[in-house]
């Protein structure tokens, strides 16, 4: 009987995780459709951005017009260009470093995203601000 309860709780936790990841993928798709000329700026760390992009990429839900998955590096290039963020040399390692965080002061992005989702409909887009000054970089 104990295993059945555990399996049900584990299944519910996995379903919630998939729903949170799907929500993140929708926000990333919205972000990738924006243009650099809009003057958007990322207000968190580059590691957070890479972790968010990699999580969204891993869902397989972000596709191009032909229905093909957009490669992770393409997502990184587009997001960094749109948000005026310097592209990391190794985005995969950056994302992995973020997901390995275990400190009380610095939790993985997805753990923080899940908490923010309880207070906001668009926790990822809340980390993007419109620059009031004209963009001079990128």
What do you see in this structure?
The chain is mainly α. Helix content is 54%, strand content 4%. It is globular.
Could you tell me the number of beta strands?
A: 2
| Proportion of residues in β-strands | under 5%
Q: Strand arrangement, largest sheet?
A: 1-2
Radius of gyration: 16 Å
Outline the biggest β-sheet: 2 strands, antiparallel
Q: Structural class per helix/strand content?
A: mainly alpha
Mean pLDDT: 88
Large-scale geometry: globular
Distance N to C terminus: 59 Å
Counting H and I runs of at least 4 residues, what is the number of helices? 5
Q: What is the multimeric organization of the chains shown?
A: single chain
The ordered H/E elements are HEHHHHE
Residues in helix, %: 40-55%
Stretches where pLDDT is under 50 for at least 5 consecutive residues are: none
Structural key phrases:
mainly alpha; 138 residues; 4% strand; 54% helix; two-stranded antiparallel sheet; globular
Give the helix/strand layout.
Elements: H1 2-32, E1 40-42, H2 46-59, H3 72-83, H4 91-99, H5 109-117, E2 128-130
Antiparallel strand pairs: 1-2
């Amino acid at each position: 009987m104990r295993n059945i309860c555990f399996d049900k709780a584990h299944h519910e936790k996995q379903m919630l995780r998939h729903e949170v990841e799907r929500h993140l993928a929708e926000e990333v798709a919205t972000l990738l459709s924006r243009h650099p000329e809009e003057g958007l700026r990322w207000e968190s760390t580059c590691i957070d951005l890479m972790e968010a992009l990699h999580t969204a990429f891993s869902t397989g839900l972000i596709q191009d017009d032909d229905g093909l998955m957009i490669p992770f590096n393409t997502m990184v290039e587009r997001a960094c260009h749109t948000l005026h963020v310097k592209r990391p040399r190794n985005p995969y390692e950056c994302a992995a470093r973020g997901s390995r965080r275990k400190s009380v002061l610095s939790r993985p992005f997805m753990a923080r995203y899940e908490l923010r989702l309880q207070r906001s409909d668009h926790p990822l887009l809340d980390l993007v601000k419109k620059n009031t000054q004209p963009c001079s970089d990128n």
